[in-house]
Here is the input.
Amino acid sequence: MSISPQAVPVAQPDLLIVGAGMAGLTLAAALAGEPLSILVIDPHVPAAPEHWPASFDPRVSALTQASENILRRLGAWDEMAAQRVAPFAHMDVWDGDGTGNIQFHAREAGAEHLGHIVENRITTHALYQQVMAAPNIECRRLGLEKILENDPRQDASGGSPDTAPARWRVVLSDGTELTPTLLIGADGARSRVRDQLGFRCRTWSYGQSAIVTTVRTQQPHGDVARQVFLDSGPLAFLPLREHSNERRSCLSSIVWTLEDEQLAAIMALPDAEFCQRLGQAFEQRLGNVVQADPRYAFPLLQNHAVDYIQPGVALIGDAAHTIHPLAGQGINLGLLDAAVLAEEIQRALGCQLPLDDPSVLRRFQRRRKPHNLLLMSAMEGFKRLFGADIPPLRVARNLGMSLFNRHTLIKNQIMTRAMGMEGDLPALAQPGLVADF
Ligand SMILES: Cc1cc2nc3c(=O)[nH]c(=O)nc-3n(C[C@H](O)[C@H](O)[C@H](O)COP(=O)(O)OP(=O)(O)OC[C@H]3O[C@@H](n4cnc5c(N)ncnc54)[C@H](O)[C@@H]3O)c2cc1C
Here is the structure.
């Protein structure tokens, strides 16, 4: 591993992070100030707030307490709160096809809130600010073109004879060639790093898509996150605020899961009719839907890389796993991947281990894969249970939901899991910070 002098443009970085989404930027921010040269590449670097459209970002995430802890420790949270974040203290989940209902209250878990709904552009921009301020990190508006096995005889890294030659030669969209010690694929669900290096994946399509948009309802949401399970899939109304201190907001971000064959017709509806159909599907729980922003549709896939690592390369975030949005867990898993990988890299630096020592990436994979797999399987089971149209199963799930709703101990366990506060947490995610919002 070569240790580069700080603030020098990165020629052959120690770490090349492909993708400046939330996962890639979290990894970079967590390694700010370390004796490592880091290059982050992405053709779409986050836009500054003055260039944001006036409307809300249609892509939002329900960030868990663990994610909030990570973002606070990285110094991004204050900037996010100064933009706007919407805490939710209650969750209300019900079966649209029966009487089953579960409510979660933060106070039952001894917490002030269960999480925050935050527009993705706010989180990304706040992380980007931290990364740009770090002397050892450079971001370039470039894409990854291809990855080749490095021929040590042509190794341009100029490494000393006692450092092993880099494993990969990476070609960027402007033709630059780099031989990073460690290559990180943080390039999202359609990861080129993953595909070019032939990582095997378990993938299936749900035959469903999700419509996302921002809506205004007749009644305020009261900081409650709501989700109804319909025959077509879950429909979530996630509370938003115009600014972090707003009370009695009537704005929600919706995620409406539909069968692919229903999608085109709903997307084509005029606004007034769309609002009416949406209000009906949501049983008018917040009165009428009175206004909706432009809609966007995302096909839903479940994808999990069989391995997250190969020699000299690791996948994090959606590049390693995509999950059904019903759990609202996708980026929460991605932030934990990034925080754990950063911790393992710091550990390697502390014991003078080369960055690409196999034990570094193996420890990362051992800590993250079982956790992600467990959550993904639980969500898959949940989705199948609610997707089932078999009457006894429907009765059982309604009964089960009502019984479960009275069982405080189990509910508390689920809440702890939903808040991301269980398992092998990296130090960045652990409790111990005072929440302001
Ligand atoms: C409808 C919907 C609702 C969701 N709701 C939630 C929720 O409530 N909570 C939650 O936790 N998650 C949610 N998710 C999931 C969440 O949005 C993703 O998990 C998250 O955005 C993944 O972040 P990432 O950084 O891994 O990847 P991305 O956000 O996809 O970022 C990848 C980055 O890589 C860049 N890139 C791609 N190709 C290249 C290349 N060749 N070279 C260089 N750069 C490249 C891209 O430009 C992009 O900036 C939802 C997803 C959907 C579809």
In short: The longest helix spans residues 358-387. DSSP finds eleven helices and 21 strands in the chain. Confidence is low (pLDDT under 50) at residues 1-9.
